Design the sequence.
């Protein structure tokens, strides 16, 4: 045992990595008054977020109507309609 150097085990390394000293200062989290709501809404308008949201909502509504009307005709189970609705809801944030 010639080496006296300290060697951290993988568990100790993870403990140091996830220590509270490495986290950002959250004392004043959410109190930043620099966020300007009208400016943020104008940026959303500039990026056409409203248009995409409305278009996605209309197309999703149309697909849900088609699924609820056509699937029973082809004897597709009811869970498939629920799956279509669920996938459209999950896909909404992705479309933006």
Sequence:
């Amino acid at each position: 045992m010639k080496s006296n150097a300290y060697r951290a085990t993988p568990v100790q390394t993870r403990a140091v990595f996830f220590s509270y000293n490495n986290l950002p200062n959250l004392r004043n989290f959410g109190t930043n008054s620099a966020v300007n709501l009208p400016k943020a809404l104008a940026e959303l308008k500039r990026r056409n977020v409203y248009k995409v949201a409305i278009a996605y909502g209309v197309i999703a509504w149309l697909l849900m109507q088609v699924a609820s009307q056509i699937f029973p005709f082809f004897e597709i189970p009811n869970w498939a309609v629920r799956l279509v609705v669920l996938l459209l809801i999950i896909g909404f944030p992705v479309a933006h």
